[in-house]
Amino acid sequence: MMTPGPDHPITLTEAPARWRARYRGHVIADSDHAILLSEAGYPQVVYFPRADVEMAYFGRTSRTTTCPYKGDASYWTLDLDGGIEENVAWSYETPHDTVADIAGRIAFYADRVEVYAVDDAAVNLRHHEDRAVDRRAIDEVIQHTDSGAGVAQRDHWPPNVETPGPEAGGR
Predict the structure, then answer these.
(1) Residue 69 — left, alpha, or beta (φ > 0 → left; ψ -120 to 50 → alpha)?
(2) Which CATH number belongs to the domain containing residue 30 in this structure?
(3) Which pLDDT tens digit goes with each residue over 118-134?
(4) Residue 141 domain flag
(5) pTM of the model
(6) Whole-number mean pLDDT of the chain?
């Protein structure tokens, strides 16, 4: 194990913007919690939280490599839309302590997958609002929907309109 220093600097930064990865027109990763890794003279690498990657299209391969600064890398193959990209992504499951924040995150080879920053204001007009979700309100709506058995899980809400009388053309 080697430690990053002046001769081989490594910096990790929380991405200030949303990042995406796209393959053949399909978004395969989308995160506002990515980490940017800058290492010595190499191009910057974006590490996505695994929860923000469409892992259903990936299979782990037997390939592994070792970086003296980061640790052992595992590789992933992408199978999507008729295309197979062998070892197109990698992750450090248990990286060295100096780069522990990339543990379990997924990075892509930028020459095989398009990795790009997204202007949140352009794709989400309400990006500045608090992302907190009122779970009670959502649960209330769900409880009044069909449970799959043909009936609602709770009694229907009382009507919020009145049926027009005969003078208005109603029954």
Answers:
(1) alpha
(2) 2.170.150.40
(3) 987 666 666 556 555 66
(4) no
(5) 0.72
(6) 86
